[in-house]
Amino acid sequence: MVVLVREDGGAGGSVPTYALDQVPGVTARAHAAGITALKVFATDRRDASGTRACAPDSVMARAIRAVKATCPSMRVMTETCLCAYLSTGDCHITASNGQPDQAATVSALAGQAVAHARAGADVIGPAAMIPGSVAACRSALNSAGFDEVRIMPHLIVDSRLYGGYRAAMGIRPRQEPRPFQLPISGHTAMAVERGLMMLAEGADSLLIEPALFSTDILSGLHARASVPLLPFSVSGECTTLPPALLAEEYAMLLRAGASRVVSHAALTLADTLGEAPSTISTPRKTLT
Length: 288
Fold this sequence. Notes:
The structure is a single chain. This protein has helices at residues 23-32, 59-70, 102-119, 133-143, 163-169, 188-200, 215-222, 235-240, 243-255, 266-272; strands spanning 2-5, 37-42, 75-78, 123-124, 150-151, 154-156, 206-209, 229-233, 262-263. By secondary structure, it is of the alpha/beta class. It has one domain: TIM Barrel (Alpha-Beta Barrel). A four-stranded parallel sheet has the order 6-7-8-9. Strands 1-2-3 form a three-stranded parallel sheet, covered by helices on one side. Strands 4-5 form a two-stranded parallel ribbon. Helix 3 (102-119) crosses helix 4. The longest helix has 18 residues, at 102-119. It is globular, with a radius of gyration of 18 Å.
């Protein structure tokens, strides 16, 4: 289940967000519904260097601790990116020449990964799509004594389906399309190779998004990699398709090779699957 956390709570719109004091309640609801993992996104105060991304008292760190305090067995997956911490809304730090500063960004992402692990995260999710970021996060986690923390980077295809998420979190990127994401018109083979590069850098699993438009990538990776593959049913599809059709989509994703499905609608589906016909039911254990 996806949980979007803002210090100021709900922002309105089509995608729900939660204040920190609401995190224990939604965690308990998810646990009662049979959901075993939460994918946590958070936004915080922003500046030119994304300082709050690595802060021990960041909204993300406090949200992780709140989940674990409520339900220690709930696995916490995080997003490791700078778009919610930079005043530009971009996923990368910008150099003086106006170009992405990849070295500075990778260093910041590695520090963010360690901060999440210290707060109690089980799975770190590098989402900036910058080459070398997975390896840097793995190295930083190992050096800090978090060898057991897993890494699940995001393999992202550029799409308009992220609009609801961006509105809910107040993220307005300066650069469109994002320079490191995969183009919607790109070749499947190129996307599969990008995922395999992440695995070569030390990833333990892959998050593939948006689920609705990435089934070719999912099936291509399933044929070449033996790691867990988790398609991410993003805000646009979860607010457009009703639960019955989402269940059909998720059943298709499982046929195509998904290990689990990450979804904004996980709690709704978990609450309603018992009433759905068996032909479209998706096992609860496959929802995150």
